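Researcher: Hi, I'm a grad student and pretty new to this. My advisor asked me to get structures for two proteins we've been looking at. I'm not sure of the right format, so I'll just paste the first sequence and hope you can take it from there.
Model: That works fine. Here's the first sequence with its structure tokens right after it:
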Amino acid sequence: MAEHTSSSITIEAAPADVMGVIADFARYPDWTGEVTQAEVLSTDDAGRAEKVRLVLDAGAIKDDHTLAYTWTGANEVSWTLVKSQMLRSLDGSYRLAALPGDRTEVTYQLTVDVKIPMLGMIKRKAEKVIIDRALAGLKKRVESQA
């Protein structure tokens, strides 16, 4: 079983505001850094993204992939890889927990498996960099809208 990497951050906003930014895929190129294009391919009955095509440029890793999203209640979203040029698998999730004072703890969990051979230690370090950048970008984006 693949190991995953996770990290958490506290954002000065309500969970609904944080999830609003997470669910707004069209704006990902504005704040994620690595995502240069995002296109929602299909939505569920509630109008939330089910399949999303993302074009990544993360330096050494450039990829065009499609992810399938599953929304669990109002405070959790997870995704899994549908297709990719460089990745064998990409599973992740955002879990939001309300904190006192209109704050939210966001936990991002990620498991990546690339098609090229890579040492587990290097892969986990790359996952950690992706997670930390995403959480910092999310925090900045949400708090700048408050």
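Researcher: Oh nice, that was easy. Here's the second one.
Model: And its structure:
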Amino acid sequence: MANSRIRLQPLATFLNPNREVYVGWDEGLQTYYAQVFDGRDAQGEDRLTVDVGNSLGDVTYPGGVITALRSYAEITDDLGELLNVSRVSTTPTYTDLRPDSRRYQQEQHLQSELNRLYRPDGFVTTLTRDDVAPLLGEHGWASSGIKATETGHTETYRRGEQELTIAWTWPDQDYDTERMLSPIHLDGQRHGVDKREELSSLLAEGSPDPQILTPGSEERVDELLTGIFTDDEAQNHDRRLDTGPDESWFDDPPSDDEGFHSGLGT
């Protein structure tokens, strides 16, 4: 654990323009503390209006210091949680909750960006429906279901025994079109995707073996074999491929079939 310090927004600053309010955890004294400073006195010393938690184990729960400051500062809804987190932190922490501070504005901007990018089902990507739909069709994925979620919907696709789930966010104040969320789920595995090329590569993975014969490719194999073997050799090669693993083709009588085919297809 380590020391923490949280700067709060004072109340009635027009009456006390120099007021500063702090709350936090003192590791050495093992206590939460609350302090209100109202400028300096004539001797240049800090004018300490509130000083709670200045002795060993004085305040051991956040509510004790929060209550002491309600008349002096704005108490945010998450202040108790912030105090609890700061108490267990292994490094010193400083949090500024005054809206006029640069640190506060930076933290608010960061939080705003995170809220814009993050949804319960993942992070919003740059990919729209127009980016994703052609890739799904190109790689043989067919829609098999849709399910509404809190901030959008998820869609399920299948390709043979494979299953793919993609989450989407509805258009909102941040985005005027549906956006794909990352990660996507492919056969039970999560994959972070943000670019079209990444998605295309992932969707192509596990596609049918290009060596599997189609009617067109079988015809091409037949042509190649015809050019390599003589008729007798090709027929022997054909019988060799058609013979089961436990059968001998050496003693088979010559085939009466004058046609030639690869025997690799039906």
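Researcher: Is there anything I should tell my advisor about the second?
Model: You could mention this: The first strand starts at residue 4 and ends at 8.
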